[in-house]
Amino acid sequence: APAEIEIECLSTSPTSKSVVEDSQLNPPNDVANFCRKSLNDNEKYELIVKAWVPDITYKFPTSSKWKLKFQHSWLRSFPWLTYSAIEDGAYCRICVSFSQKNAGKGNHENLKAFIQTSFRSWKKALEKFKEHQNKLYHKDAIEDAHNFRLIFENKRNDVITEIDKGRKQQQLENRRKLTPIIRAILLCGRQGLALRGNRDYGPLLMKVSKENDGNFRAFLRYAIECGDIDLHQHLQTASINATYLSPRIQNEIIDAAGKIITNKIVERINKAKCFASIADETIDVSGIEQFSVCVRYVDEIEGEYVTREDFLCFVPVEIVTGEGLANTLLTTLNALGVNTLFMKGQGYDGARAMSGQYNGCAAIIKKICPEAVYVHCANHNLNLAITHACKITPIRNCLGTIKEIVNYFRKSNKAGLILKNKIKADVPEAKQTRLLKFCETRWVEHLNSLSLFYDVFEYICSALEELEVTTCKVDGVQPHTLLLSICTPQFIVALLVLKPIFSLTKNLSLSLQKVDCDLSSCVQYSNNLYEEINQMRENAESNFKNVFKQAMEMAEKTGAQMIIPRRVKNQIHRENYAGNPEAYYRKSIFIPFLDHYLDQLSSRFLDHSTLLLKIQNILPSKCIALDTDGIKETAHTLITEWPNEILGTSEDLIAEIVMWR
């Protein structure tokens, strides 16, 4: 008799009663999801090999007045037995897959328990399990399952193939024909190339088409030229409807490859048993709201643990409320096979729909997954910090002026050519002669535009002076107006103040985007930036002397005068500081900008620091410094925040932390 399916090969996952009660968190491969319906071969294999099995820490709910419950030891004694968390009952997954609905002489016996309905009479469990195990239909199902696995895993040919050896040969030949076609499609995918062109139908001609028939056909033509005999013979002998070159076949191959990649990612996630969801929504070029779903987890590669961030899919969404996005995210993860019981973190932006305290996506998911801690995207926080800091009037006006000038030179061919010629005349080896546009969404990316604008500032002024004579207008903007706006001391000082701050911020932004950047590194990086800018603020007078010196040099080249604006008794639209120009611009631009930025950094990264304080004490470097009260507080926090991950009582955890220390 064939060996029964080993329980060790089934997928296991820890959970708790409170989580199981919510249907959204039930494992997608729970046996109840396969019952009472017709199963295809993939579903049968999924059920008999990968059915969900609770691990040893799972707490089975009690039922009836006798307080009886399912026993984990039964799964070892009866390998065919499978527990359903959805129905709190037992099934025979082998009979669910292969048994008939009726049995006995004349098929008069209607099979229900273990097959159509779950078994829940725990008082008679062992008796009924043994009785079912001895049934003839169960033994036949075991035999069928054994043979099915051998065939499905290509360890044995099916009956038709055994009888028809020619069929097997035809299968191998068809696979050999498809191989170069699949390789061409995968190559286009890896290189990010479009497959199809203007004429991508009909037979593949060796003569290069006058019209572009796409990269896919070009790669196949090149493969034939390089001596791919199998491909050439296939295209020469195949009928017009069996060349496997049509767009439909291409899409099917792409979909199959995508499923293979996704399944491998899902397998790694479930193996890690701990992941964080990363999601964001945006509108695509066709105006459809797309929800991008990614995951962050730790993978083991050749004995080393590596942090990974993998993209799973795009999901079109119509309901963009917190509840709608939460349902979309959970439904998508479950449909892909990700066990959401392992969700321990969430990373989104600060939009109300995502981060709302009560009805945001993160809050709703946390009600279902209590251990999924929400962390506001650090890079998004940094972007918001610099955005709000740049709202002070001189800085805002400076950035607005730069944007207008960039648009002016980019939209006017004549203006762009004059600027290019002036740069090339002075710096022949210059590679970048066209001003860069500001990124509309990511302020830290303004640095590239600012740096180039600063480097060619003198040439911009010279070009505007030349264009002023020709009155070359773009969108109603006169070059004379732009020249006047950048030749003011307020603009020059603001530009010189922004450049070093944006340089520091860009470095932090790049650090926060690293895949292996954890919460501790995030807080450390942000603290380093805060300390650096705070030091500039504490030594504002000496630091601004260098800024003002550079401003004087720039003003001298452009003919601007470093003077303070006219002062009046009751000034309400701008600052009215007394003193010399250096003191005025230090107090009106430099110090306010630094104060605003420091305040934003402090407030926006406070939540990250608070969360870090909760968990950092279990790190070896922090654990050794804990006193008795610190150990108790750490243990209480861990048990409160992650109750399902902490085994034993608080006293047990305290004792373990003491041993670590």
From TrEMBL:
Stretches assigned to coiled coil: none
Domain (TTF-type): residue spans on this chain: 65-165
SUPFAM superfamilies, sorted: Ribonuclease H-like
Listed name of the protein: Zinc finger MYM-type protein 1-like
Source organism per UniProt: Aphis craccivora (Cowpea aphid)
